[in-house]
Amino acid sequence: MVQVSQAELVQGAIAGKAVSFPTDTVPALAIKPELAEQIFLLKQRPENKPLILMGASISDLLPFIDYTAPELEIWQQIFNKYLPGALTLVLPASSLVPPIINPTKSKTVGIRVPDHVIARQILKQTGVLATTSANISGQNSLTSMPEIAQVFPDVLVLEDSMLKLEDKIGSGLPSTIIHWKNQQWELLRQGSVTVK
Q: Of 129, 146, 158, 159, which has the fewest CB atoms closer than 10 Å, so is most exposed?
């Protein structure tokens, strides 16, 4: 069981280790995008289920998406209204996205900026990370940091004492997922955010 300070977690992530920290939804399992295969192995996750890229801000995530100026203008309205927040946007992927992030034939990538101070502090220091919920694939999301440390003994897990009262573990609800397709938004999963 490895529960570490925020500084140790950041150093570990930069060094290429898998880490876990709370977000505004459920705790994340995260790693550098190019090492994402480790997440699939840790979670026993089917290879047809893409991971998402999480960043401290939209500007950190923009290099990973492919867009035209008019598209970016449309997307910006959603960014401004709902981010940071429990919303995952599935957008065209740029060549910077390692193929393992989305092993399906779709040339898309899910991106998200969590509405959680500690998560964003971590991401600001590590840069964009490939993420998913902290659980064995097909099982319920784990919601306490000690529980995550027990199930994933090789993962650096943020210790509870690092969490302030206002930064609890998260809502427990998954993020809403919307996909930009045929020049419009399509709802893939309804989560805690309702996009209007």
A: 146
Using one digit for the tens of pLDDT, what is the confidence trace for 103-116? 888 899 999 999 99
**C-alpha–C-alpha distance, residues 40 and 56, integer Å:** 23
Residue 76 predicted with pLDDT over 60: yes
The number of beta carbons lying within 10 Å of the beta carbon of residue 150 is: 12
Q: What is the pLDDT of residue 164?
A: 55
Q: Are the C-beta atoms of residues 21 and 9 closer than 8 Å to each other?
A: yes
Domain residue limits, the chain: 3-189
CB 50 within 8 A of CB 44: no
Please work out, in degrees rounded to the nearest 5, the angle formed at the alpha carbon of residue 102 by the alpha carbons of 96 and 130.
65
pLDDT digits (tens, 9 = 90+) for 48-60: 899 999 999 999 9
Question: Does 3-189 carry CATH code 3.40.50.2300?
Answer: no
Q: Tell me the torsion sign for CA atoms 188, 42, 105, 88.
A: positive
